[in-house]
Amino acid sequence: MLKPDISHPLQSTREKTDETLLWQQFREGQQEAFQGMVQHFYRELHFYGGRFTRDSDLLKDCLQDLFMDLWIYRHKIVQTPYIRPYLYKSLRRKIHREVIRHSAIISEDSILFDDVSSEEITADQALIRTELSEYQTARLNALLATLSDRQREAIHLKFYAELSNHEIADILTVNKQSVANLLHRGLSRLRESWPSLLSLLGWLLNESLPK
């Protein structure tokens, strides 16, 4: 039913599309705005959702349900400047519910924020927006794999989705200080394990770690 284009490269969340206007027009029932919103957000939501499940059919169903629910209940959805966090949180909830329903997992705390295989470009590499060699990428992925699921998810939401600590806290259902702690501990671990990473990703680490 929904046929978003996911073949193009990942787009920056800083692109000029007026998300707030698109959201407003979708809520007013404009189908073109709705399709535009699907095209605009689908790929990054697919990328994020793919970190919770390797079941591509389950992921596609959750994305389909997410957008169809938005259209069906558009008149009940409030106007908000926090569109991306709203979508991320909604998809996260749907995936967790379906994963629990189809497996022996009994709580959301048991669901992992998984890493993609080493042959693929990770969201974390994409968010860093830096030219890394194949060896450096593999090493970074290995280090990221040593972090906790929450730390990896916080890093993903901070540097790939470009969300604020407040928005991340809402998605993870924790307070802002917990998000700051997750980022600090995760990025500190990277810096301690690979000091020269600062020269490659200095802007990322310097901006995120307390001086």
Automatic annotation (TrEMBL):
GO biological process, one term: DNA-templated transcription initiation
Pfam families: Sigma70_r4_2
Presence of keyword Transcription regulation: yes
InterPro entries according to UniProt: RNA_pol_sigma-70-like, RNA_pol_sigma-70_dom, RNA_pol_sigma70_r4_t2, RNA_pol_sigma_r2, RNA_pol_sigma_r3/r4-like, WH-like_DNA-bd_sf
Domain of life (superkingdom): Bacteria
Residue stretches making up the RNA polymerase sigma factor 70 region 4 type domain: 139-190
Molecular function GO labels: DNA binding; sigma factor activity
Record keywords, A-Z: Sigma factor, Transcription, Transcription regulation
Protein family membership: Belongs to the sigma-70 factor family. ECF subfamily.
Protein name in the entry: RNA polymerase, sigma-24 subunit, ECF subfamily
